[in-house]
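WARN retry 2 of 3 for item q-0093 after timeout on previous attempt; input resubmitted unchanged.
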Amino acid sequence: MDYESFFRKEIDSLRSEGRYRVFADLARHAGSFPHATRHESRAPGERAGPVAGEVTVWCSNDYLGMGQHPLVLTAMHEAIDRCGAGAGGTRNISGTNHYHVLLEDELADLHGKEAALLFTSGYVSNWAALTTLAAKLPKCIVYSDAGNHNSMIEGIRHSRAEKAVFKHNDPADLDRKLADVDPDRAKLVAFESVYSMDGDIAPIAELCDVAERHGAMTYLDEVHAVGLYGPRGGGIAEREGLMHRLTVIEGTLGKAFGVLGGYITGSAALIDFVRSYAAGFIFTTALPPSVAAGALASVRHLKTSQVERARHQDRATSLKRKLAAAGVPVLENPSHIVPVIVGEPTRCKAITDLLLERHNIYVQPINYPTVARGTERLRITPCPLHSDADIDHLVASLCAVWAEVMPQPLVTLAEAA
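OK item q-0093 returned
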């Protein structure tokens, strides 16, 4: 077999569909993010490109700018000076640093749970925890929301447990599916709080009502909500006073907390069970102590500070209002996510390319398989550090590019005013 020809053919197929992914080569500016230096993009195997200019980033998951917060940076520097670079091993073999222990305690407290367990990413925490729980619980059947993230889908698939997919954010459909199963079987309901592509929010209370009625465990992914919602940043479940009703609350340290890693929280027995059986935890090197220290500082700060959350919501509301006034098709939702629906992959990429090349605005096109075909979009994520001028520049630039690329006209800014 000509392996290289096969690889090239598959990549060419992605290009022809408008789905080939190009990485933006960025150097973030600590102290002035969301501004960054952009280098010329390159394909795998090519040398790094020269500087192409300065850009404003509009699609970062560092939602609150905590990746450059002085408290976080100071904590990381101190941990490097104290402990060195890496953890030195798996958590089981010499890799458990005291920062890991302190961070797990802090996360358990954040979600009102007895214990927490750290993983190397939010993807791994979902994959490993769901795989372990679903595989080990006797005759377990997993009920998965149709909109769940790939990490959850793959974790459930890898467990080889029976799976039932219920309609997105539909407690009635979940109720019907749970009613059809032997009440004595182990059951696990898995869903997210904020869905990252549409920005919609799950009816957590209603889903918990259904799960409790049928004796099912609940597993809530809060990765796009931790740090951002609730009086201490515990997520949507904290905001709505529901944390005590959820069996497992999973989150990430790589988005609003601005660092790296994932985690689950739950009862002491459940966390000990996953710690003892999850291959994705047991056989991987622990997070560097500096990363754990930075995350610890970030979580502690956001438990008491409301400034970042308030400013973040203000920026999202302002941007949505101005885009809507300009006639830009923003998908309405109650969260901080700003999805602009394009509906076709090549135009989606063309819009983002022109925003980058002509207006120094970086937004990544979101195409299939991340979203369904025909719903291709820009996923814009304002942060507290975007200024009014940044917002106005984005709206004006997007309107100019849209008029060139898209067949349907927008309301002009003059008309909107």
